[in-house]
Write a structure and sequence with these properties.
The chain is an all-alpha fold. It contains 16 helices and two strands.
Length: 360
């Protein structure tokens, strides 16, 4: 079997995303509805089910990617998707926790075209909402009727949360480091950060269904390896969208990461590229750091636009997109060993293609 990741966008989202929503969203609603009314309302708002005042919303929320991966995880090893629902619920809840806290740490005011949870309800309330979502994520996974498999799934989710937090800590620390010089962030450091911040939960999602089905360590480790590679590919794609995406599609201001001093893959790639555009980029970033050493986010829109244009001219965005496709392809080839079912592999390929070519 030869696995490929198409480079052309799919017209429709893969069917597994809709299957994930139909199977997991009712469980999500059931998990958050018994919470204190304020917590339940913030949780519902974070999932896109209601407006800040509690009125039902027309939005369908996020893609539910991680829960879809959990369902595919079970199907890849020949089990029914329903077997993975506790794991799908757990990873989706933990993802929601991470988004709420990430928006607070980054001071992001918009997500999916709406105020972020902290902006709508206040920082303290948002922290509490994120905390409770993390707590019920572990409760959801631990309630699987098979104690040994549930215990293994809890361990997997726990490690993913630790790795996620460590990746987030690295990402924050990178903002205080220079673009150039002895303290600059390397591509290797970026990869390690993204492997935790994004890759850890993606990997957990792609393995947790198999864990709940009692699969062998060989199978689980293969899925973890594939998930880590896909997670890194998806993070690089997010980095590209942060600089080139349409705010009407992404729900966030363009170049927001650059304004915050985040060290994204396209910029790191552009800085190391040959040519005059890369040289101009290095000079401009050096001048900016010298002028605003105490506040790297203090940059005009014109300067940010110029930096973004130079990143594009130096090939940073294109190199990043190519690297994301390469990572996804090489990761998916790990599934060629015969342990996995062909149908779910094809669905995973389609899902990877859709996410790499998305506009939001």
């Amino acid at each position: 079997m030869v696995l490929t990741v198409p480079t052309s966008a799919l017209v429709r989202p893969p069917a597994v995303l809709e299957r994930s929503r139909s199977l997991v969203e009712p469980e999500l609603r059931a998990a958050v509805s018994p919470l204190h009314p304020e917590l339940a309302r913030m949780a519902a708002y974070s999932f896109g089910w209601c407006e800040a005042d509690g009125v039902a919303a027309e939005s369908r929320g996020g893609k539910m990617l991680r829960s879809a991966l959990a369902l595919l995880s079970a199907e890849l090893v020949g089990a029914r998707a329903e077997k993975a629902v506790p794991g799908a619920l757990g990873v989706e809840l933990l993802h929601a926790f991470s988004l709420i806290h990430d928006d607070i740490m980054d001071a992001d005011e918009q997500r999916r075209h709406r105020p972020t949870v902290w902006k709508a309800y206040g920082t303290g309330s948002a922290i509490l909402a994120g905390d409770v979502l993390a707590a019920i994520a572990f409760r959801a996974v631990s309630q699987d009727r098979h104690a040994q498999e549930a215990g293994n799934a809890v361990k997997l989710l726990s490690q993913a949360m630790v790795d996620l937090c460590e990746g987030q800590a690295a990402d924050i620390s990178f903002e205080r480091r220079p673009w150039l010089g002895s303290g600059q962030v390397t591509v290797a450091e970026y990869r390690a950060m993204a492997a935790g911040k994004t890759g850890a939960l993606i990997a957990c999602s792609l393995a947790i269904g198999a864990v709940l089905c009692g699969s062998s360590s060989v199978v689980v480790n293969t899925l973890l390896k594939t998930g880590h590679g896909l997670g890194l590919a998806f993070q690089i794609t997010d980095d590209v969208l942060s600089g080139t995406g349409d705010p009407q599609a992404t729900g966030k201001p363009v170049l927001n990461d650059l304004r915050a001093g985040k060290k994204t893959y396209p910029v790191l790639a552009a800085l190391s590229a040959p040519g005059s555009a890369s040289a101009q980029l290095r000079s401009l970033l050096a001048a900016q750091e010298a002028a605003s050493a105490d506040d790297p986010a203090d940059q005009s829109d014109e300067t940010l636009a110029r930096i973004g244009a130079l990143v594009a001219e130096a090939g940073g965005y294109e190199q990043a997109a190519q690297e994301a496709r390469r990572l996804a392809h090489s990761s998916l080839t790990a599934l060629e060993n015969g342990h996995f079912h062909a149908g779910p592999i094809g669905e995973l390929q389609d899902l990877a293609a859709f996410l790499l070519d998305r506009s939001a």
